[in-house]
Hints:
The protein is α/β, with parallel strands linked by helices and 329 residues long. It has two domains: 3-185, Glucose-6-phosphate isomerase like protein, domain 1 (Rossmann fold, 3-Layer(aba) Sandwich); 206-325, CBS-domain (Roll). The protein is built from 15 helices and 14 strands. Helix 2 crosses helix 7 (163-183). The longest helix is centred in the first third of the chain and has 26 residues, at 3-28. The chain starts with a helix and ends with a helix. 35% of the residues are buried.
Amino acid sequence: MSESKTDIQNAQRALQTEIDGLQALNDSIDESFSKAVSAIHDMKQKAGQPGRLIVAGIGKSGHVARKIAATMASTGTPSYFVHPGEASHGDMGMITDNDVVLMLSNSGENSELSDLIHYTRRYKITLIAMTSNPESTLASHSDITLLLPKAPEACPNGLAPTTSTTMMIALGDALAVSLLERMGLTPEQYKVFHPGGKLGQRLMSVTELMVAHADMPFVKDSAKMDEAILVLTEKNLGLVVVTDDKGGMKGIITDGDLKRHMDANLLQKPVTEVMTSAPKTINAKALGVEAMDMMTNTPGHYLTSLLVMDGDELKGLIRLQDCLQAGLA
Length: 329
């Protein structure tokens, strides 16, 4: 058998072993999981200080703990990683009785965890254990135990943490998603934790990208086209909004409207004769990507801008070029 074929078979065996472990984990979820979600969600507040989720672990479990803490923090649950060894040398003071501690250890018997376990018991800090050993020191002293099913490691020697760490990561993700659902975290709120990069760009709201009402070009419905063209040219936004005497929006005139009505009498035409009376609009609460989708995927139309509305109130103007410049493509 070729080395390539052997490698592929080994990869498939490892993946299948971990898939089986995840299936066993899925089948094992019980009320303890819901209790853990509640404990984290309902972290106490004292003197105006909110509780935080402290995630701890040693070795490979420590690496997973860091990942879980990062995922929690990015989905709205204040969380950070504490190394049990460093906790024994001063970092224990970072943990308050407002907090909840989530401790990871497959065996549940790591000696480095003992000081942190003792600290949570002394100060009545809720301790959630994630372990595969229900009889372990960690499990026996925890308030809630998230028990990992016994599953073989993908390592052929059964030594390297593989399936066990995959289950820990997945269970941490399940906790984070369940907490996110309980909080009702919206995409707009999620963006607060991801202001940079492509994710932050895609979650930019229409109001963050739009030209504000005060900076838009307007002309009265009693005006002629010579005035409208002058205002349109001065603002250089590709359109001018036609309003009534009370400032209510009656329509818009775009560069395209000028081309469609171009003739010798254009300058003397009433703006109401040239304007589009039912322009495309988007809600002020929408995301920029939604506006871009409307402008680029409206059947039979090529739109370069949308009016931003909050009910009947005109809030601004969002343009395709603004979306492209923000990196939404």
